[in-house]
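All the exercises in this workshop are built on plain-text protein records. A learned vocabulary of local backbone shapes supplies the integers on the structure line. Once this layout is familiar, the rest of the handout is easier to follow. An example says more than a description, so a record of this kind follows:
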Amino acid sequence: MIKSAGARFREALKEENPLQVMGVINAYSALQADKVGYKALYLSGAGVANASYGMPDLGMTNLEDVCIDIRRITSRANTPLLVDADTGWGSAFNIARCVREMTRAGAAGCHIEDQVLAKRCGHRPNKELVSKEEMSDRIKAAVNAKIDDDFVIMARTDAHASEGQEKAVQRAKAYVDAGADMIFAEAIHSLKEYREFTKHINVPVLANITEFGKTPLFSVEELASAGISMVLYPLSAFRAMNKSALDVFEEIREKQTQKDILDKMQTRDELYDMLDYHAYEKELDKLNKETK
């Protein structure tokens, strides 16, 4: 029997503690992360908006925009994929559709946050939240919509920034009571605060270790000491890719040649190895012989 993506994510969480969850923006970066050995991948809402549509992460992309990228990634990488579902794109019906469509697209799970519909990046100021009760209803709608019992419903709380640590923990507990399988504690400042989450929350807790944000770049070992179950790197590779690409664009524009920056580039052979190009080519040659 083939295990669902959700079941494979839950297995990965048992096999690696804390589980490193690596952000990818497309199918090729998913192949790279898979080859390095990551047991879980992540598709960021910011990644979809920034990389696929060239827009800021301000709630301007929709469910189908995200599902397109889910399908592309899961068609090439078998590593289970956790997906950013923002606020669920609307009412209980929208949230239910989100869960079903992401499951069908191949996602292992999704996280839904407690910001208002016109959401902001979790590490930016002036975030507005819905009530604890409204967010609990979002989680209930998501759980009730499952078509795979193992699909992960993760509740993200952004309350730490605006309501403080105590209210953030209270919200997280309410979301677990509403049926959340896991908790995403956003923009936390200290290991002590993470310990407070894991002490009071009886489901796995995720730490978002994103660069240039509000959370220090704690190591896996440090987060393990605080009881964290998952460590997320949502856009690390994307940031590096952007910087490298811009350097290449500028170099070629200025010097009118790329010969001095070849050492910064992946070689053709390295690309072919990642894609298993030669195996496809051999299969094509075989098919051509058979049809002659």
Summary: The mean pLDDT is 94. Strands lie at 19-23, 40-43, 81-84, 109-113, 152-157, 182-185, 205-208, 230-233.
